[in-house]
Amino acid sequence: MTIPVTVLGATGLVGQVFCERLAGHPLFQIETLVAGPESAGLPYAEAVRWRRPAGVPGEVANLRLVSTPERLTTQVAFSGLSPGAAARLEGPYAEDGAWVFTNAGHHRMDPDVPLVIPEINGDHLALAPAQDRSGAIVANPNCTTVGLALAIAPLVARFGVGAARVVSLQARSGAGLQAGEIMELEDDLIPFIPGEAVKMASELPKILGRWHPGGALVPADVTVQATCMRVPVTHGHTLCVDVTLGAAASEEEMRAAWRTYSGLEGAADLPSAPHPLIHVADGPEHPRPGGHRDRGQGLAISVGPPAPLDAGGRRWTFTTLSHNLVRGAAGGAILTAEDAHRRGLLDG
Ligand SMILES: NC(=O)c1ccc[n+]([C@@H]2O[C@H](COP(=O)([O-])OP(=O)(O)OC[C@H]3O[C@@H](n4cnc5c(N)ncnc54)[C@H](OP(=O)(O)O)[C@@H]3O)[C@@H](O)[C@H]2O)c1
Questions:
Q1: In terms of Cα–Cα distance, which of 327, 339, 256, 335 is closest to 297?
Q2: Is 228 a catalytic residue?
Q3: Which of 2, 33, 133, 139 has the most CB atoms in a 10 Å sphere around its CB?
C-alpha cells in the first residue's frame, strides 16, 4: 500500500522534479498539489511552466492545484515552496501533524530539525519525533552543501577532514523559476550568491555531526570557506574543493575511499538509492555537468581525480558535481522520506 502525499510548491522547479519522481514511486503517491493563489483550481498541466525534458506525468496532469490549504489531508508533505511561503506555512503544517520534508532553508539550523543526507546521517532522523510538534520538519541541506558533504564524508571516515576551501560553479536552475533574470544567464557569470557561503559553512558541521539518543547533536569540527558563483549551466553544481586531511593519504587511497563508500547501513537499499553512489573520474577533464549530472538518475555524485597540494599527502584538490534539483533537492528529500519510512517513522 502506498502513502498519500502532498507536494507543496508543485509548480516550481523543485516541485516539478517531485512530481516527476513521485509518479510511479513504490512507497508514495501524490494526492494533493499546492501552489500559489494564481493557479488555484487549475489542472496541473495547464498551470505549470513545465521545464523537465519528459512531459508532465499523466498521474498529475489533470490534478487540480490547491492554494495553501489551512490543513493538509496527508501525513507526508514534500516541500518545494519558495523561502517566504515555506517560512510561513511549513511550521503550522508540521504542528498540525504533517511530516514536512523541506528544501527551504528556514529551519535547517534549528537544533531539533534533522538536516539529512541518508547515506551520511540518516540516524539523525530520530531527532524529528522529539520536536514540539504533532508532526515534524525534516530538512534537506542547501543544494551546494549536499555535493560537498557527499564528497567529503568518505574522506572524513577514512582520514579525517579539518578544513575545506570551496569555489562553487552553480547552475542557473538553482535560483528557481522566480529568478527569471538568472534563469536567462548566458555568456556571463555572477561571482557572488548571497547567503550561500554561510549556509555551506554552517550546514556541513551539522550534517557530519554526531548524535546519540537523548543527547544534543554535536557538530563536526570542520571549517568551510566558500566562494559561490552562478554560471550559465542549466543544471548541476560543480565545486572546486581544496581539503586538509587529518591523516596523510595517497591518490589511490583517496579514490578507494570514494569508490567503496556506501554510507550508513541500509541506505544503499532504499528504493531510489543510486549504485554506485560516487563516480570517480579517471582523467582531469571530468566531471562535466552536461555529461555526468544525471548519473544514478541524478542521485549519484561525481568527483574528479584528486591532485596533491603538498608533499605530505594531507592537502588535496578535486572537483565534484551533483544535480542541484535532484540530489540537491527533490530526489534527496524523497530518499530521506524513504529512510524515514524504513526506520518506522511514517505511518503506512
Ligand atoms: N532550485 C534549486 O536547485 C533548489 C535546490 C535546493 C533547494 N531549493 C529551495 O527549494 C525551494 C523551491 O525552489 P525552486 O527553485 O523550485 O523555486 P521556484 O521555481 O521559484 O518555485 C517556488 C514554488 O513555490 C510556490 N509558492 C510561492 N509562493 C507561494 C504561496 N504563497 N503559496 C503556495 N505556493 C507558493 C510557487 O507557486 P506559484 O508558481 O504558484 O507561484 C512555486 O510552486 C526554495 O525554498 C529553494 O530555496 C532550490
A1: 327
A2: no
A3: 139
